[in-house]
Amino acid sequence: MRYILLFVLFVSALSCAQDKRPIAGTTEFQKKINSEYKDATTSPLKDKDRKTFKGLDFFKFDSTYIVKATFKRTPNESVFQMKTTTDRLPEYVKYGEISFELQGETHQLNIYQNQGLIKEEGYEDYLFLPFLDLTNGEESYGGGRYIDMRIPESNELIIDFNTAYNPYCAYNEKYSCPIVPRENYIDLKVKAGVKAFKKH
After folding, report:
1. Which of 61, 82, 149, 161 would be a feasible disulfide site paired with 65, CB 3.0-4.6 Å?
2. pTM of the model
């Protein structure tokens, strides 16, 4: 009887250890996003997908996708309603333009500020960088990806494309996600950040 009890306790402990698997990821960003998606309180995943979730698929970290960009503030822009995947029309303003070199070519993107989000504590200096590239619909989500940014203190900022992530709509159609403006298209493959979601 004693051995049976010990066996039961061992199996139970082993099961708990498996439930507490270390968070997948090779960078701080990857571990953080995987942790959020695994947690039922912060995950955009459907319940059935979250229960089998082991981690997102990422492009291999590549330091060449960390670029220094020139930031130009555009102070006279008007507030506009950004289209989303639903009827929701959140108010944004084009906050500035950023230009950078990647794979030997110069690229320019617009960076935006959500007029509702900046009223929330901790997001006063938040900027939104959505972009499209040639991996969309193949290796990455078809609707493009996003990068979270902060207002720089100078006319330069660092863009880390390894932190590019999918809109929540890539995982669950119940979400309303901003549609990437066509002018934010990078005419090359940005093989960095989160890949297209594949259900395992």
Report:
1. 161
2. 0.87
